[in-house]
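FAQ
Q: What does a multi-component entry look like?
A: The components come first, one per line:
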Amino acid sequence: DGGITQSPKYLFRKEGQNVTLSCEQNLNHDAMYWYRQDPGQGLRLIYYSQIVNDFQKGDIAEGYSVSREKKESFPLTVTSAQKNPTAFYLCASSPDRDQETQYFGPGTRLLVL
Amino acid sequence: QKEVEQDPGPLSVPEGAIVSLNCTYSNSAFQYFMWYRQYSRKGPELLMYTYSSGNKEDGRFTAQVDKSSKYISLFIRDSQPSDSATYLCAMSRPRGSTLGRLYFGRGTQLTVWP
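Then the predicted structure of the entire assembly, as tokens:
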């Protein structure tokens, strides 16, 4: 099956802890994206990557970090500097650097203990 | 002012009704217009995709773009309870100008009751 997988489905973070959300795609897409979704606020772009070993900050990158060592993988780390991390995190990919249609994974819900 | 405005609703209609969902935008450079459907606790799925102005029809769904008014619409005919979801509009600038990022509306929550 081709698609985007995210894990875990639910994640709990303690105060001061860094946590990493996984995103994998087997669609052979070049570009990958991370969004945060809060109730009533739509999707906000955290980071995006157009090619391996390159990524750019989105609108709300503070407190987050990413890496893109492989085409298939784009993990997101929520650091302790992110003071309000509780949200639904969505990963997406698109077929080429300028492709406007994005395909989303099932999401990870992050909760703070 | 946000670049993309969308009324969050909620919108509640009876089964069989025609549903109209809308977004307005401020950036005249937007060329690609999308509608995504998101069921509760799931990732969004691409529903409709339109380039520039005009209409596009796919089954019970019709997407309209009016660039002169900076206004896009999604119509759902013969709505079904399975259409109950949040509908997100999204748009982007021409290819090559901004590395493919999308600008999303807040989403409209739709409930179709039997």
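Q: Is there any commentary attached?
A: Sometimes. For this entry: Chain B touches chain A at residues 6, 8, 32, 34, 36, 41-46, 49, 88, 92, 95-96, 99-102, 104-107 (CB under 8 Å).
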